[in-house]
Design brief:
318 residues, 13 helices, 3-stranded antiparallel β-sheet, mainly alpha
Length: 318
């Protein structure tokens, strides 16, 4: 069995594999006191170290640090499964760029939040307590899954009738993290980091990411921010989110693509995408088709090795 695990890990593309190894090892080292102090103090976000000792890298590296074996194993498994075929679709450079950008933005935001809370409360723990960010790594990967295959169900081997909608995986994950926080299994800053990774991941994929030969970002309706939530909640969120997007989103997209926004793009109704963005929708659809092909290839390979090794089954929603 161990040989099969090693062989599987070796077959994972380089970025997803090393991210999984680093976050998994950090989780298990957290139970070794001497190693835990060194790893957390050097690579997890510690605002005091970031400021006074200029450990600026911990803003980024914290996303690969786990506070225990459970979170480390969970994040590693996510990278070895979802990260594996995301890298097949995007390539190693774009996956690494995506994770680095999300880690830097979310890490900086959390650093500023903790410093501000310290100024208001004078609680020293806010500056000196390490904040591992492995939960945010899972958030970022699940946002990418939602973008690539939003209209598909991810089945599991637990029961043939159990299937998880890919488009709701990020919000389901955050609810799980909230439950861990309520049970005091994780610290509140870890939950905050997992939460803020979601909007930063969405912003990057929505407006910034540019794959070779394709338009920048993904402005399709299926990747609108409201689609992270169940449909009844979407109805409530649509008006304010559409207003925000009409005011800021179109201008941000225009600045990044060096194109002036058109008046037709500023319509609020239904988060509609103007004709000028039709090419972006086509690009997004091609990305999803490529993602499904990569996922199908992985499943076919797993089926050849035996049904016990098939971890995921993807099928379109009815």
């Amino acid at each position: 069995e161990m040989d099969k695990v090693v062989e599987y890990v070796r077959g994972v593309p380089v970025v997803a594999r090393w991210v999984a190894v680093v976050v998994g090892v950090s989780g298990w080292l957290s139970h070794v006191p001497a190693a835990a102090r060194w790893v957390a103090g050097s690579f997890a976000l510690v605002p005091a170290s970031t400021s006074s000792r200029l450990y600026l890298w911990n803003i980024v590296t914290t996303i690969c640090i786990a506070n225990n074996a459970f979170t480390g194993t969970t994040a590693a498994a996510t990278s070895l499964t979802f990260g594996r075929w995301i890298e097949d679709v995007w390539g190693p450079r774009h996956l690494l760029l995506y994770l680095t950008a999300v880690a830097a933005a979310a890490g900086l935001a959390l650093y500023l939040d903790l410093v501000l809370l310290y100024i208001l409360s004078r609680a020293d723990s806010l500056l000196f307590q390490p904040t591992p960010g492995a939960l945010g790594l899972v958030s970022a990967l699940l946002v990418a899954v939602k973008q690539l295959i939003p209209d598909h169900l991810l089945g599991t081997t637990l029961h043939p009738d159990i299937a998880l909608p890919a488009k709701y995986l990020p919000i389901m994950w955050l609810l799980f993290c909230a439950a861990l926080a309520l049970l005091q299994a994780i610290a509140l800053p870890e939950l905050v980091f997992a939460v803020i990774c979601l909007p930063f991941a969405w912003l990057y994929l929505r407006f910034v990411q540019q794959l070779p030969g394709r338009h920048r970002g993904d402005t399709t309706d299926t990747f609108a921010f409201k689609t992270f939530f169940p449909e009844p909640i979407q109805t409530l969120l649509a008006p304010p989110l559409n207003s925000v997007y009409a005011i800021s989103g179109k201008y941000l997209d225009a600045r990044l693509t060096a194109q002036p926004p058109q008046q037709a793009d500023l319509e609020v109704g239904g988060n509609a995408i103007a004709k000028a963005n039709n090419m972006d929708a086509s690009d997004a659809e091609r990305r999803r088709q490529r993602a499904m092909k990569a996922l199908d290839d992985r499943l076919a390979a797993a089926d050849e090795d035996g049904p016990a090794e098939a971890k995921l089954q993807a099928q379109p929603e009815a």
